[in-house]
Each structure stands twice: as C-alpha cells, then as structure tokens.
Amino acid sequence: MSMIRIHGVQLEVRQIEAAAGEQRRAPIVFLHEGLGSVAMWRDWPDQVCLATGRAGVVYSRRGYGRSDPVPDVRGASSEREGLRVGRLQPDYMHREAWEVLPELLRVLQIDKPVLLGHSDGASIALLYASRYPVQACIVLAPHVIVEDISVRSIAQARTAYESGDLRERLARYHADVDCAFWQWNDIWLDEAFRSFDIRGDCQRIRAPVLAIQGVDDAYGTMQQIDQIRTTGEHCVLQKLEQCGHSPHRDQTALTTQLIADFLAPIG
Questions:
Q1: How far apart (Å, rounded) are the C-alpha atoms in residues 185 and 212?
Q2: Are 78 and 85 in contact (CB under 8 A)?
Q3: pLDDT tens across 147-170, in order?
Q4: How far apart are CA 267 and CA 109, in angstroms?
C-alpha cells in the first residue's frame, strides 16, 4: 500500500503485480462505489487479476479509505488553497473522471488501461472512456441517470447511518467515516443532482464495454445498462439473477468469469 499525491491530495493506492510473463497486458484499474475504498474491495481485485493475467491498481478516492479527507464536508462548497472544501457538487463524477483519474494514471505511467468500476466508480469509468483511450471498460451496476429507486434507497441508507448500525459497519473501511458517508449521501439527495445524465457521454465511447447488473438491484432498474449506447461495436450487457447492487459480492464466481471471458481477446 502506498500514498500518491494528486492535485495536492494524498490518495491511498494498492498495486497488484501481474503474473510472470503477463506484464504486456494492460492493467486493470478498479474504481470503487460511492461508499467504497481499497479495503472494501477485499481480495476480489486480486482474484480478477489472477483470472485475467493482468496487473491491477486499486485506489480510494478523496474522502474514502485512508485517502485525505475533505474539510467541512457538509458545508458550502468552496476552494481553499486550491483544494475543494465542503460538499460535493453535481459534477463530482465528471471531475473525478476527467481531472483526477487522468493525473493518477499519468503518475502511474499507465496509458491505456482496462477500467473496472462499481456503482459511482462505474459511472466514472464510463465518463473517462468517453474522453480518453482505454482497452476496455467494465461496469458493475453503473448509474447513467438518476432514478426514483436510487433516491429512495439512498434516503434509507441515511436512516440506517443515523439510527442503525451502518456507521459502525462502514467505520472499519474509512479513516473518516463521516466524511465518506456524507459526501456521497448529501449530493445524491440534493435536488440539483436529479439532472445527472451521462447517456450522451456513453455514446462517445469507442472501446469494448461490459455492463453487469443484478436483477434485484435496489439502487437502479435495468434502464441503467439498457440505456448505455456506445459508438463501439462491442457492448455486452449481462443481467444476473439472484443478484443485487454488488455483482462481485452477490455472484462472485460468475462475475469474475464473465470479466475473464470478456477480456480474453483484448490486449
């Protein structure tokens, strides 16, 4: 585990070595969900890298895991000494995809990665691939629009955090659990975020895309992957039974195999 400074912020980064003789293949960059972190992926990135014969990079976005927190995370959004202070804005995934991630990849000397994102991380992967070259883009339970079901479930998460055991369960994965939770929850429940819509951005993606979603996803209907339209010829949609918002946890073996099969012919 290491810390890498990007735009003045220390980010927690874990790198996974490729198996001997497999270094030529593009590495997989894992992009976590709205409440995720390096630790919250557990060992699944290692399983995927082993199954695909690739190296991997796992990192925690600002305010998550062991990465630097955001001061006054529930206050008014502003800048202090060049760094954001306060609440996330509706374009937070765009900024992560188009400002932070390109700089992280530059520092890591990765030119054309395979992106693998979950939930918010999946949306960030799609946005990055709409502007920058990638070998492939794999998305688990992405958000391309905001649906009522998403807002309802996120409102329920707020109740669970304030009155249930969610805060305690998340605290093991984040140095500043309140920062991690509120920066995600506040913006998703902000009326200004209801206009979030990246379907047009997806239409600019030329790379192969694999989109996986659980039939029982409480955070989105099948519209989320059905409405992904790319300019590339290879866009595969997989809808998994007995699976909720986290295919890599609910259907681990199947999800890993789908990814391995998809990446097998890709450099």
A1: 24
A2: yes
A3: 999 999 999 999 999 999 999 999
A4: 17
Beta-strand pair 56-59/28-31: parallel
For the entire predicted model, the pTM comes to 0.97
Indicate the pLDDT class of residue 46, thresholds 50, 70 and 90.
very high
Query: Which amino acid belongs to residue 185?
Result: N
